[in-house]
Amino acid sequence: MTVLTSIDQEIFNYEIGIPGSIQERVVFWAEMAKEAGLDGVVASPREIKAIRESCGNDFVIITPGVRPAGADANDQKRTMTPGEAVSLGATCLVLGRPVTTSPDPVKAAGAILEEIERYRKSK
């Protein structure tokens, strides 16, 4: 795990007390994880591109904080849509509440898969 998706820059710097940008720190920790022999990290979709550039395409990035377009972000601060996250190189998406709180979870999951396919076809 790098930085929880419910933490924004202000919380990171002033409540937790870690200086610098979240993205720089996440990339640093991802590089450390790779050097230690780990296959990947859990990271916000906002850091996918920077981690990919630093750690390569074979490095696993498990991505929480994914919300379909128009969905409530809830307590998540650093989010992205499923299509955006996949297009940037997320290996796995973590989608909890957008599916589990839906009146029709099967339909919600299907809509997410359709969104991902639309992004894949448009690239």
Short structural summary:
The protein has 123 residues and is mainly alpha-helical. It has helices spanning 9-15, 22-35, 48-55, 82-88, 97-100, 105-122, and strands at 40-42, 60-63, 92-93.
Secondary structure layout plus pairing:
Blueprint: H1 9-15, H2 22-35, E1 40-42, H3 48-55, E2 60-63, H4 82-88, E3 92-93, H5 97-100, H6 105-122
Parallel strand pairs: 1-2, 2-3
Word description of this protein:
There is one protein chain. The chain has 123 residues and is mostly helical. The chain has one domain: TIM Barrel, CATH 3.20.20.70. 47% of the residues lie in helices and 7% in strands. A three-stranded parallel sheet has the order 1-2-3. Strand 1, helix 3 and strand 2 (60-63) form a beta-alpha-beta unit. Helix 2 packs parallel to helix 3 (48-55). The longest helix has 18 residues, at 105-122. The protein starts with 8 loop residues before the first helix and ends with a helix.
Labels describing this entry:
TIM Barrel, 47% helix, mainly alpha, 123 residues
Structural class: mainly alpha
Can you identify the CATH superfamily?
Aldolase class I
The multimeric state of the shown protein is single chain
CATH class category: Alpha Beta
Q: Name the shape in a single word.
A: globular
Order of helices and strands: HHEHEHEHH
Our estimate of the beta-strand percent is 5-15%
The low-confidence parts are none
The gyration radius over C-alpha positions equals 15 Å
On the 0 to 100 scale, the average pLDDT is: 89
Assign the CATH topology.
TIM Barrel
| Straight-line N-to-C gap | 29 Å
Strand order of the largest sheet: 1-2-3
Indicate the CATH architecture: Alpha-Beta Barrel
